[in-house]
Amino acid sequence: MRITRYAAGLAALGIVLTGCSSEAGNQAEEAAEGTAEVAEDVEFEAGTTMAELAEAGSMTVGTKFDQPGFGLLNPSGTPEGFDVEIAKIIAAEMGIAAEDIEWTETVSANREPFIENGQVDMVVATYTINDARKERIDFAGPYYEAGQDIMVAAGNPLGIEGPEDLAGKNVCSVEGSTPAETIRTDYPEAQLTLFDVYSKCADALTNGQVDAVTTDNVILTGLVAGNPDGFELVGNPFTEEPYGIGIEKGDQEFRDFINDTLEQAYEDGTWAAAWDRTAGAISDTEAPEPPDVDRY
């Protein structure tokens, strides 16, 4: 077994990584330093967000800090994961190096306010595109499609196989998330416990405070990978969760630029390489077919 950089990050969360023997994981570790090439001598139309950021040589990105595989703070205080790599790809296309990105933690409940208030230039944080959010902000992407699933204690002692089995059970999710809203709206007989981050849900499942945790399958996969003796994924996704990049509403030029950059990353393999060295490394999965961007 080889211990990847994620082991240290998971340990920092109090989660023990007990196995990483996949070929995908080993290949990902070997490719860990293969990040996007930073563009030189970039030029953008004056007045656009791209021109302003390129001139500044830096940008602020909101992401999660507690989600293995997508956005997880490592011991040195820098987030790592697929979301983080997507942000680096976009920044690099504006001539901004990874070390010039300022990372801000965005939990599910504060993503729209942080964009609206200008506290971040964009949010890449397992951020599901939906119509309610599009009333306040705009999305580029999607760059990945997940599905809501359920995590239970290892051995599944309560026999939970899908959302219908949550009736009367205590299920945990986070404030401001689409999974929480789905449970509240479509499965009202479940008893919903809400925290601000999913790591607290994992702790609650460990100590028996809740019977199950629900959110997107890729997030739960990271938590299970960190504690395979304690957690189990039901493996029955029941929603579609297209992940987008949140930006200020009405910034059409920036949205088009990000969408163009994503499509280029799909074509040249940068997107797949980012998956292989992050989420793919801990889930032992090959890079999926990238989704079509939605230029709504």
From TrEMBL:
GO biological process: amino acid transport
Gene3D superfamilies hit by this protein: Periplasmic binding protein-like II (3.40.190.10)
Solute-binding protein family 3/N-terminal domain span: 58-282
CDD domains: PBP2_GluB
Keyword Transport appears in the UniProt entry: yes
PROSITE patterns cross-referenced by the UniProt entry: PROKAR_LIPOPROTEIN (PS51257), SBP_BACTERIAL_3 (PS01039)
Annotated Gene Ontology cellular component terms: extracellular region; outer membrane-bounded periplasmic space
Keywords: Signal, Transport
InterPro entries, A to Z: Bact_solute-bind_prot3 (IPR051455), SBP_3_CS (IPR018313), Solute-binding_3/MltF_N (IPR001638)
Key word Hydrolase present: no
Cross-referenced Pfam families: SBP_bac_3
Signal sequence extent: 1-24
Assigned protein family: Belongs to the bacterial solute-binding protein 3 family.
Name of the featured protein: Amino acid ABC transporter substrate-binding protein (PAAT family)
